[in-house]
Amino acid sequence: MPAKKKEDKESGISIEPLEFEVVSLQILGVRPLIVHAWDPKTQAEMLAKQMKLPVKGPKQRERDPKSEFEAALYRIPDELGGGFGVPAAAFKQSFVDACRHVNIAMTVAVGAFHVRGVEVELPPIRIFDKENNPIEVGEKSMEMIPIYGSEPKMRVDMVRLDGGSADLRFRPYFTKWWCLVPVQIAKGTLTTQQVVDLANRAGFHCGICEWRPFSKKSKNGSYGMFKIAATKEEQAHFKGLKPPPFML
Length: 248
Hints:
By secondary structure, the chain is of the alpha+beta class.
């Protein structure tokens, strides 16, 4: 039964209530997934330089591949289920980018649906003032989608920086992965079937996270590709899984 319009008796304006539908997409990775969360230490050094404050520690930190690998993981706290995740925004961006390959306007898709995840609070940026007193700057959080599958392994890649010089990156990657992705759809915009088809297209044309097929910096990757689980064998991965809790 459709929701009744709310009417402001004084102005005579009636308000059409928004109606939503939530569908949980069974996303199955078809290519390894490379993730790269921002290291809080790197963020602190960046902010300290911009604020002309002393950078704590030696000017050039000794590289520790294992620490860089660990810092690049998106972690979900134990009280929220634990394990690893990926930003919900990565799926939203992928789905919207896939509009280039179907007859759906990106401007419509941006507001027609939202990918929802569990709200994870991230550690604040910690810097030091000129008297060496610690300062914690801001609060931040991120909606994450829990991912399941293989344990993350360390991957090393040669990358080209903006200035043209080369560097090494030590990043986690998952050889096998799958996840439940809740999508909140505003009724009257796109149908559930359109969103499912768009998500399936996104898995092939766009992917998610590092070195994906559609990226502003590199369009020659094939990592982070996925599809909607369709067969009984594929859907067996999701037996007993529940979508991440989120606030409407």
